[in-house]
Amino acid sequence: MTPASVNAGLVQRFFYQGAGLALRLNRRLEARSTAAGRGLAALAMIAAAVGIDTSLTLAYQLFCLAIAALAVAYLSSLRDPKALEARLAAPRQASAGLAFDCSVTLSNRGAGPLRDADLRLEFADSRPSLAEFLGSAKHEARNRYDRWLGYYRYMELALRKRNARAAEVALADLAPRSSLTVRVPVTPLGRGVIRIAGATVMRREPLGLLRAAARVDCAAKVIVLPRRYRVPRVAFDGSRRYQHGGVALAARVGESEEFVALREYRAGDALHRMHWPSCARLGKPVIKEFQDEYFARHALVLDTFVPAGGERAFEEAVSIAASFACTLDTQESLLDLLFVEARAHGFTAGRGLLGAQQLLELLAAVQPASAASFGVLGDAVLEQRAALSSGLLVLLAWDEARRSLVERLAASGLPIVALVVSSGQPEHAPAWLRHIDPERVEEGLARL
Amino acid sequence: MRTPRLIIGAAALFWGWQIGLPAAGLAVALLAEGARYLPWRIAATREQLQRIADFCTVLLALALAWLFATRGAAGAVLGAFQWLPLALLPLATACALTRSDALDLSVLFLFMRRRLRAAGRQDGKLAGTLHFGYAYVALLLIGASIANRHGPWLYLGAIGFALWASLGTAWPRRPRGAFWLAFGCAALLGYAASLGLHTLQSWLTEAVADWFVAGGLRSDPYRSRSSLGTLGRLKAHGRIIGRVFVRQGERAPELLMTASYDRYQSPDWIARDAPLAPVAAALDGRTWPLAAPLDGRTRPPGVMTTPSRELRVVLESPEHAALLALPRNSFELRGLLAEEVKANRLGALRARMAAPRIPYTVRYSIRPPGEAKPRAADLDVPIEEVAALDEVLAQANADRGSPPERLRAIERYLAANYRYTLYRAAGNTPGATPLARFLLDTRAGHCEFFATATVLLARRAGIPARYATGFSVREWSDREGAYLLRARHAHAWTEVWTNGAWTDLDTTPADWSSVEADADGSLRAFEDLWQWFAYTLGEHPGEPRELPWWLFPAALVVAVLYFAARLFFSRRERFGARRVARRSAPEGGNPLRAVEQELARAGQLRLPGESLNSFAARVARSAPGLAQGLDDLFALRYRQRFDPDASPALGEELARAAERWLAARRAA
Asked: Alpha carbon A315 to chain centroid distance?
């Protein structure tokens, strides 16, 4: 490591700490001041700049009035509201981008009334870790100074981690030893989880410029399902396949089959299929007989190997996968969801196994792969190949590894539909490969 | 949340009253407030509001250019705040006509627009909102404060508007006793603070005025900070800081002095025992006789009768105070509308003005009057410089002969052995004083070296001498009909006492001006033009001056050209949009209609709402023979309809492809 890189690292750490401090100050400032107070502070600053020479303008009078009002407001806001309790009711699930309401019941256990108060929800600590900050891609749209300072990057990371925006709501007057319930609209920003850690009750001082604030605890967790799009009905040509072990065990691995009946033992039957209770009852060997099952089984393969700058495309790919997971007919067929995080994961839905809702919850938590190479996903898909009737691949790029996987699947006779979600048109793409621009997903899906 | 009714109108009237233009206030009130009472509202999109904000920016830029030209940088900033409500009037009116006065911040700030575009968000959630009505009232109050109308009205007005805004909005919802108490405390505290602040600044200004305010024309009557010790290249500024007008046929004096100093404390020159004393104006308040005692002596009455000349000088001083540039033997200033003029015994005159421009006419005699005799200090030589000075005096043979001969020897020696440079080399004699290095080692320097060396050499040779600073008058401008004083014309030279009078002796090599002129940037001509423009349009204290006739037509032409360009480009976009719409309109020009009809005849009817791709897939399943080539054809159709970058030629290509498909079908 060169001294220059050590220094750069130190500078980045310094900016990281600074941005964290700024975030906390910002939140505190928002809690402790009203829009009118912030506006008055801005007026004071402008008046100070304009009225720096008191013999040239009278702007210093405006400055003094504004500062005096803020000083009086500060003194009036020193006493925080006390003896408050809150109970929070939040839905278990929500959808990205669609606002939902949380219900907060606030109880005043104190002796005095609570007047002129606002309430805002507090989310769990959303500060990004140093590793996340250092590892996050620098936003190209920002100017060089912003990219170097990383402040906006930090704020974006924090917002992404918080994953929600919640509006402030004004509270009606709350008499002593009474309760009231308010609805707080929350807008999830993306899929994942929203952790609500509590609420802040902010009481405006008489001038309405600053607020006294008190934090009350009330926690809730909301799973945010991915955004879904309207997708066309995809007709898969694949025929039904023998499913070793039947529906119930379709997702498992091992020697298992669908039970049909009992029959007498014939030479050559495996001993582990002996039905021992019947043997004991009848006094002769009885064997369990199994029915082989044939039905369609589709694979929904989600590429989680995010290329540089492809975060947006990845989110859209997850949304597209979620849209298909909801739409594909799982009454008469099975749907395998395959993706890779640290290792390959496979989940089967349909015919009494997982429902679409559970698949969406899984997709809500999908993270970019940390495994070494795309080959892990390829191996997982090829392993299931024998049981699959067709495959829908949602890819993030079109490179040699992906091309190889798709060609091997196609060569094995598996009917596949392959989508590439990327900002640019993939190079050397065959005609049957469908490209979807993450900025125009609906349009891309409509063309399928 | 809208602003309370009538508050904007009242604030506008208050602003108009304070700045002395009640008609402007009334106009703003009628437009920004009156628009709220119209029976209809407009649904302005963000883009439309952005265009209105752009228009306001253009207005503000024009106002700033005008103010900068007429009032200088500091005046322009204050003026901009004063006129900001007028520049923002279109936006305020638009806000009054919309349903809400919450203005998206991206309307006002370009960088937020870029952020929105970069994030691909059109819903505006990245940018915050501003309640424009309240901001506008605040701007009107700030604008009113710049008029600087002393009295209680601004403060009372501010309190009134604050109360109005408080009671007229949702916060606080019910004014209770606590509100009135807090408001009263704030008003009283603010009043006390404003009084205290003003008093404190006045006291500070008075206390330090003599040390700091004299910085006009970068001079201090008490101390001249030289660059003798500075190494490397000195920066020479070409900015015009004054103009000298002379009568036709007369030449301007070569040197205009601003100050004189008698004590050398390396590397600075100091004026010892020379406090500034007020100069009394004549009855008209614009004439300042300088026959008052300089150095405690009254000028002999003969001064006024000696042949005299006069010249007019206009100095630019953003600090509103400057040391006046005067020719030697000045005895009267005329036309100087100064708040105060002070002089010291060494001939420095400082004027304090209400405006950043200082015009005056100075009368001077061309024959030296009797002047203040030299003092002992005028022969002082710092002990550390003596060795170097003696060595040079010996080499120059200036240590013998009469005083004029000694001076001539010094002048000759410096001219023959030293050269002018703006670059100061380190030299080979570390530890030596800057002057000794100049005299014995580098033998190259700028005017301060030559002047300092000459003063000290003359003193060492027994001739009283002083160090003078001022300007060298040498650049005539045909365009302006005046000599220009640039910052780089600032000069230092020597005053020597010979034949019973102080005379100027400039030993700096004559090429110094051309060396400094070479340092001018390539944009100097444009800057000169701009400064001339600013000078022509600017205020000239004490002189009623009409604006040039071409100014308003020129501004009008610029504005018309700007809006014509905006209109042209916006209409072009719209026409372009229409062209695209026409091209992609399905009715009438659908080249695939014949193909669909052909398929329908073959029993493959496209279902209502069925996409072309689904249709092609269905045809491929049920009649593979028919489907040949359909995929490509439909892909082309999709591109033509949905690809924003598709060329107009794509339509023709699609028509040709459809023709080919139909021909192949008929042949089959």
From this structure: 9
pLDDT bracket for residue A141 (50, 70, 90): low
Nearest CA in chain A to B79: A50
Per-residue pLDDT at A241 exceeds 60: no
Contact (Cβ atoms closer than 8 angstroms) between residue A87 and residue A182? no
Categorize the per-residue pLDDT at A280 as very low, low, confident or very high, splitting at 50, 70 and 90.
very high
Strand, helix or coil at B493? strand
- Dihedrals phi, psi of A232, to nearest 5 degrees: -75, 160
Token digits of residue A5: 């890189």
Measured in angstroms, the CA of B178 and the nearest CA of chain A are apart by 6
* Inter-chain CB proximity A60 and B197 less than 8 Å: yes
Chain A residues closer than 8 Å to B166 by CB: 207-208
Q: If we measure between CA atoms, which residue out of B255, B422, B432 comes closest to residue B326?
A: B255
The more confidently predicted of residues B219 and A309 is A309
Measured between beta carbons, the chain A residues lying within 8 angstroms of B83 are: none
The answer to whether B417 contacts chain A (CB < 8 Å) is no
Two tokens, residue A380: 């997982």
Interface contact B185, partner A, CB < 8 A: yes
User: Residue A250: is its pLDDT beyond 70?
Assistant: no
Q: Pick from A56, A63, A68: which is nearest to B189 by CB?
A: A68
Identity of the residue in A59, A60, A235 whose CB atom sits nearest the CB atom of B617: A235
Cβ partners under 8 Å of residue B326, min gap 6: B256, B257, B258, B347, B349, B362, B364
Say if the Cβ atoms of B166 and A207 lie within 8 Å: yes
The Cα–Cα gap between B8 and B2 comes to: 11
Average pLDDT taken over every residue of chain A: 82
Task: List the alpha helices (DSSP H) in A136-193.
Answer: 144-149, 151-162
Instruction: Say which residues have a Cβ less than 8 Å from residue A347's Cβ, sequence separation at least 6.
Output: A251, A336, A337, A354, A358, A359, A362
Instruction: Name every chain A residue with its beta carbon within 8 A of the beta carbon of B149.
Output: 58
Q: What is the pLDDT of residues A203-226, one digit of tens each?
A: 999 898 999 999 999 889 999 998
Q: What digits encode the pLDDT tens for the residues A59-114?
A: 999 999 999 999 999 999 998 888 899 999 999 989 888 899 999 999 998 888 88
Contacts of B172 in chain A (CB under 8 A): 116, 204, 206-208
Judge whether residue A170 has pLDDT over 80: yes
Tokens standing for residue A401? 């590894």
Place of tokens 């423009």: B533
Q: Which residues of chain B have pLDDT under 70?
A: 1, 71-72, 118-127, 170-175, 205-237, 291-307, 366-372, 423-430, 513, 515-522, 539-550, 552-553, 563-564, 566-589
Q: Which candidate from B145, B186, B205 shows the least CB-CB separation from A58?
A: B145
Kindly report the backbone phi and psi dihedral angles of residue A357, in degrees, each rounded to the nearest multiple of 5, phi listed first: -60, -40
Q: Is B141 on the interface with A (CB under 8 A)?
A: yes
Distance between A145 CA and the closest CA of chain B, angstroms: 13
Residue among B128, B124, B44, B164 nearest B92 (CA): B44
For the entire predicted model, the pTM comes to 0.58
Q: Is B156 on the interface with A (CB under 8 A)?
A: no
Q: What is the pLDDT of residue B586?
A: 44
Mean pLDDT of the A320-335 span: 75
CB proximity B155 to A under 8 Å: yes
Looking only at the bridges linking them, the beta strands covering A293-302 and A390-395 are parallel
Residues of B in contact with A232 (CB under 8 A): 611, 614
pLDDT value, residue A181: 92
Residues in chain A: 448
Choose from A63, A65, A159 for mutation: most chain B CBs within 10 A: A65
- What ipTM is given for this predicted complex? 0.71
The answer to whether B181 contacts chain A (CB < 8 Å) is yes
Do A242 and A111 meet the contact criterion of CB atoms below 8 Å apart?
no
